[in-house]
Amino acid sequence: MVRLNIILLLIAVACALAAVNANHKARKLFIELESEQKRMRDLEVEWGQLQLEQSTWAAHVRVEKIAREKLGMRPPAPGQIIAVEAEGAR
């Protein structure tokens, strides 16, 4: 009888330790999940900022201004424009 009680006690202790270990792992995984979700939100914010920055840098008015001021470019005169039709475009 004493031997059975000791065996049952050891089984109960092992189960308790396993439950504590499982809870600890679950908490660690939950913290990691929250951390990765925060990182995802931060990356989404950064992506939005980068898209806004790209649209600003690629704005037609800005490109035209730089072409005029820094590169000395100007629109062609009407006589300098030649329209070319590609075959099969009809």
Short summary:
This protein is an all-alpha fold and 90 residues long. It has helices at 2-57, 60-69.
Query: Care to count the β-strands?
Result: 0
Number of domains: 1
Q: Summarize model confidence as the mean pLDDT.
A: 93
Number of helices: 2
Distance between the termini: 98 Å
Derived from helix and strand composition plus strand pairing, the structural class reads mainly alpha
Uncertain runs with pLDDT below 50, 5 residues or more?
Answer: none
The helix content is: over 70%
Q: Which percent range describes the beta-strand content?
A: under 5%
Radius of gyration: 35 Å
User: Which geometry do the CA atoms define?
Assistant: rod-shaped
The biggest sheet amounts to: none
**Elements, N to C (H/E):** HH
Tell me what you see in this structure.
There is one protein chain. This protein has 90 residues and is an all-alpha fold. It has one domain (2-72). 73% of the residues lie in helices and 0% in strands. The protein contains two helices and no strands. The protein has helices at residues 2-57, 60-69. The longest helix has 56 residues, at 2-57. The model has no long low-confidence stretch (mean pLDDT 93).
Topology (SSEs and partners):
Layout: H1 2-57, H2 60-69
Keywords:
90 residues; mainly alpha; 2 helices
